[in-house]
Write a structure and sequence with these properties.
- By secondary structure, the chain is an alpha+beta fold.
- The chain has a domain of 252 residues: Rossmann fold.
- 18% of the residues lie in helices and 35% in strands.
- The strands form eight sheets. It has an eight-stranded mixed sheet, with helices on both faces. It has a four-stranded antiparallel sheet with strand order 1-2-3-4, with no helix packed on it.
- Helix 1 runs antiparallel to helix 3.
């Protein structure tokens, strides 16, 4: 008879496939680049027509990003080493990979090769002549914009204005501009820069010097017209039309009303608007000239088509087909295709799913009022086979500028299959609920979000769950929330599972990667001016209050939250005689990217919970 750990292991082997890029051959047949973890790590595959996925890479480390080089049978890929996030870019010969089998590192042509620095793909020009990327090679901190001329492999920096510039949507249709996003001086403050690849001149779209606001990646209609999602001057992001020639802008009617929105452009003036409605995606096609809704696109299940790991949908070159990745609580990520003309949808990829969809739990939406009356939205997944109040895991997302959404999570489903209810809150500071809500945990208001956990705990019994057997689990900032809950609310929580979490906000900021420190200080507070509060809000400084058993998972090469955050906490708890199991993976970074490590870590965490929460 299968144990709960066996079911979790089966769920962990569920494969996901994510859309990366779209191209077409000489006959007009669409080709897709797809990242999939069928081999145990994310490798690159190609799909065309109605065929199967063809594996292109067999690398030691996962493929982080990829793009076609238009007009060629080449692609550029980005790969780091052991999760250190210092990606290097290489060219991959697609025909060679299709003819001889998946390529190893020695079969690639290196475009960058300095492991001291990160290089992140920012786009390929429409004519295939140039590649853009951002890199901190100049000083190890600031990410500048570079251009590589693919004919000569010559590199030149075109923007070095400082800041942690990040890729947006690449080149404009005429190849003149490259878009990058640059953090502003405040939390949740992002500028959109358009950099001229010849002169280095910069245009800032929707400047907002007097407020924190987001201006997202552009969707180009033509060389002078683009659309962006932005919350400049408003609480929720709306779609804004921007004319590059005049600088004129205007919001698209009907967007930005109670939900955040994104936009994708296609041939023939089509716009895809993606609205975030309580952690699920709603899709609608608009006409860029009239802004009239053509049709709403129904998804197989309530889920998401874009997230921090899912690239936004893409149109085929002629605009006839929309390709997207869909992930829902019961569906692992797979690629789908929507025919704009016939309004029909087909599933493009479908990997093995060891546990049937109908056997997985659905997520219901609920809410709870926190200490100050703020409404905290949460998802609830319940086991089918448990009579009476069952133990519960409160699963907290990372970020903090992020949102728990309706996507597939094998660990959550494994917990439910093992008899746990799982509650997934979007505590204050989460995105997706407007600019005001996302700012409620900034800097010295950090502990207000921890108070939200107490409100969730107070709600459990009314929901028919066993509040006396409630554990916290989360990764990254969610790991901090786990530790903060155990330290500041020891009477509430019976156990914790911390994955790559922050134990001390001071030492975290002191030891995180140099390029991340200034960015993180905007959210958490400054070492120079807020050190006293950072210490006050650090679980490690209150470790004498922690009594609940704790399971800690960390990657040795984590560049965001150094492994020392886990080691110092575990050492302190061991000295006090509090049960703390620390598992460190030598070939991982900020999370577990390798199936073998996930198969080791998460069943052990489940067995830990089974033991300490046995009722």
């Amino acid at each position: 008879m299968a144990t709960s750990s066996d079911v979790l292991r089966s769920l962990l082997t569920t494969t996901t496939s994510f859309l990366v890029d779209v191209d077409s051959d000489s006959s007009g047949t669409d080709r897709l680049l797809v990242r999939s973890d069928r081999s145990g790590t994310m490798q690159l595959y190609e799909h065309e027509g109605t065929g199967e996925l063809h594996e292109l890479t067999a690398l030691v480390d996962p493929v982080g990003v990829a793009a076609y080089i238009p007009g060629t049978r080449q692609a550029v890929i980005g790969v780091d080493r052991g999760g250190n996030e210092r990606h290097q870019l290489s060219l991959l010969d697609l025909d060679l990979a299709r003819a001889s089998g998946p390529l190893a590192a020695g079969d690639l042509v290196a475009l960058t090769d300095d492991a001291r620095f990160g290089h992140h793909l920012a786009g390929v020009s429409p004519d295939g002549a140039r590649l853009a990327y951002v890199s901190n090679a100049r000083n190890g901190v600031d990410f500048d914009l570079w251009i590589c001329e693919l004919a000569t492999l010559e590199h030149r920096c075109v923007y070095d204005g400082g800041g942690w510039c990040q890729p947006a949507t690449g080149f404009s249709p005429d190849g003149r501009w490259v878009s990058v996003q640059r953090p502003g001086p405040r939390p949740l403050d992002v500028d959109l820069l358009l950099v001229d690849v010849v002169t280095g001149g910069v245009r800032v779209v929707l400047e907002h010097p007097d407020e924190a606001a987001l201006v997202e990646a552009p969707a180009w209609v033509d060389a002078t017209t683009l659309y962006v999602s932005s919350n400049v001057g408003r609480d929720f992001s709306a779609i804004v039309r921007y004319e590059l020639t005049t600088g004129a802008s205007a919001p698209v009617p009907g967007t930005g009303v109670g939900v955040d929105a994104q936009v994708v452009s296609g041939a023939g003036g089509a716009l895809l608007v993606i609205e975030n409605d309580n952690g699920r995606s709603r899709l609608a096609l608009l006409d860029s000239s009239e802004h009239a809704v053509r049709t709403e696109l129904a998804l197989k299940e309530q889920g998401v088509v874009t997230s921090h790991v899912i690239r936004a949908p893409q149109f085929s070159a002629d605009g006839s087909t929309l390709f997207y990745t869909l992930s829902s609580p019961r569906l692992a990520g797979d690629v789908w295709a929507y025919d704009v003309g016939t309004r029909t949808t087909v599933r493009v990829t479908e990997g093995p799913q060891p546990v049937a969809t109908d056997d997985l739990a659905t997520a219901t939406l609920d809410s709870v009022a926190s200490f100050d009356g703020e409404e905290i939205r949460l998802f609830v997944l319940r086991p089918r086979t448990v009579d009476g109040p069952c133990p519960v895991v409160v699963f907290v997302h990372g970020g903090p500028e992020a949102q728990a959404v309706r996507s597939f999570n094998p660990v959550i489903q494994g917990l439910v299959a093992a008899g746990y209810a799982v509650v997934v809150p979007n505590v204050r500071g989460s995105t997706g609920y407007g600019k005001r809500y996302a700012a409620l945990d900034d800097t010295t208001r950090r502990l207000d979000s921890v108070k939200d956990l107490a409100a969730v705990h107070g709600w459990l019994a009314s929901a028919g769950l066993d509040a006396s057997r409630a554990a916290l689990m989360g990764g990254s900032y969610g790991g901090y929330m786990v530790l903060a809950g155990l330290a500041f609310q020891p009477e509430l929580w019976a156990a914790g599972v911390d994955v790559v979490g922050i134990s001390d906000l001071v030492t975290f900021l002191e030891h995180t990667s140099d390029y991340r420190r200034a960015h993180r200080e905007r959210e958490y507070g400054s070492l120079a001016t807020d050190r006293e509060f950072l210490a006050k809000a650090s679980p490690l400084r209150h470790a004498d209050q922690i009594t609940a058993p704790l399971f800690v998972i960390h990657g040795r090469n984590d560049p965001r939250v150094p492994v020392s955050e886990a080691e110092q906490l575990a050492g302190t708890l061991h000295e006090r005689g509090v049960r703390c199991e620390l598992v460190i993976y030598e070939d991982e970074g900020h999370g577990l990217a390798r199936l073998a490590n996930r198969l080791d870590a998460y069943p052990r965490a489940l067995e830990f919970l089974d033991e300490v929460l046995a009722g």
